[in-house]
Design a protein that fits this description.
By secondary structure, the protein is an alpha+beta fold. Helix content is 41%, strand content 21%. The protein contains 5 helices and 14 strands. The strands form 3 sheets. Strands 1, 6, 7, 8, 11 and 12 form a 6-stranded mixed β-sheet that branches. The protein has a 6-stranded antiparallel β-sheet with strand order 2-3-4-5-10-9. Strands 13-14 form a two-stranded antiparallel sheet. A hairpin with a 4-residue loop joins strand 9 (129-132) and strand 10. The relative contact order is 0.10. The model is unreliable at 6-25 (pLDDT under 50).
Length: 351
């Protein structure tokens, strides 16, 4: 009996709140749409679309592969300093092509106190969703399902409620393939820039000896030293010969030392770049593992919610069956009318 009263009271409260909302003259909707003519603006592994509403408010949709953010500002700048401030900011729904995002439903189910809408000031487990109304911002961490929905969708829709007015903001995302293409292009450019380029080898300069009255001799470097010039001297001048040999030997020694230092520096840079690439790869694998664990947690939570919903349905059917057996129909049973006997009819007055 106590359970029956509890369910009856809950049904009355829900029905009353829905009736009040339906008759509320202030609950009007404003629709803002960013059509296919609004293109993405790219940064370093970031993409943003922006659209302005009739009241001058700008809506910025931001994506960086790990999270999706919607920010309301007073100007074209998508910055926190220009963000609008709200004391009451609610997010009723987030849909792609008319279907609610699974991750948003998870956030509702795992929000403190209630699961009717995403409310400013309430905590969501693991901060998967963050309603930062004080900064005019909604943040959703991406899951595999959410990313796939963006890649294959045509329109994403946010139903917001700042103060009393409901605002529906729509962004065309049929060109989302351009985002992934740009991100891949940036990553390829960074990888190509990180690879060392071989230094060009200068061709040996050709020395043309001019005829002299006296016989001339010349001394040059061994093979592999094209930058050292030949030194010419009189063949019968022993002092000039010694100076030429000494100068060439000194230049060869200096070049050997420079090459040794350059090789050591190149090896140091190669090892540093290799370590950096290994670090980035380890961080990427760690992010993927963390995302995998979060997705598993989301799936487990969804299963629990489905089981709870099934238990509530069974209990409500038991309560309603008693009413139907007596030939009565209550509005709290309207949701389950398909399970009622043929003699029981739906009540059009039930909202």
């Amino acid at each position: 009996m106590r359970s029956f009263r509890l369910f009856l009271g809950l049904a009355i409260i829900i029905t009353s709140s829905q009736a009040v909302a339906a008759n509320n003259p202030f609950n009007k909707s404003v629709v803002v749409t960013a059509g296919p003519d609004v293109t993405w603006r790219f940064g370093d592994q970031t993409a943003t679309k922006s659209v302005q509403g009739r009241d001058g408010t700008w809506y910025h949709l931001y994506y960086d592969g790990l999270r999706m953010r919607l920010r309301l500002t007073n100007s074209t700048d998508d910055t926190q300093s220009m963000a609008k401030k709200f004391e009451e900011f609610a997010v009723n729904d987030v849909k792609i092509d008319g279907k609610r995002l699974k991750v948003f439903q998870w956030c509702l189910n795992n929000q403190d106190k209630h699961n009717r809408f995403l409310q400013q000031g309430l905590k969501v487990q693991k901060d998967i969703c963050q309603n930062q109304g004080e900064n005019g911002t909604l943040i959703i961490r991406m899951t595999k399902d959410a990313t796939s929905a963006l890649e294959h969708g045509n329109m994403i829709e946010f139903e917001l409620k700042p103060f009393r007015t409901t605002v529906v903001v729509k962004f065309n995302i049929s060109d989302f393939t351009a985002v992934n293409a740009e991100f891949n292009k940036q990553r390829a450019a960074k990888l190509a820039a990180s690879k060392p380029k071989p230094a060009p080898v200068a061709a040996p300069k050709r020395v043309v000896a001019k005829p002299k009255p006296k016989p001339k001799c010349k001394h040059g470097p061994p093979d592999g030293y094209p930058g050292i010039k030949y030194i010419e001297f009189n063949c019968d001048d022993d002092a000039a010969r010694n100076r030429a040999y000494s100068s060439i030997g000194k230049q060869v020694k200096e070049i050997d030392q420079q090459r040794k230092q350059a090789a050591a520096e190149a090896e140091r840079k190669r090892k540093a770049e290799e370590a950096q690439r290994a670090k980035e790869e380890a961080e990427r694998l760690a992010r993927e593992e963390k995302l995998k664990q979060e997705q598993q947690a989301l799936a487990a939570s969804a299963a629990v919610q489905a089981e709870l919903s099934s238990d509530i349905t069974k209990k409500m059917l038991a309560v309603c069956q008693k009413q139907w057996d007596e030939g009565k129909h209550r509005c709290y049973c309207q949701k389950y009318i398909e399970h009622a006997p043929a003699t029981i009819r739906a009540n059009s007055n039930c909202k």
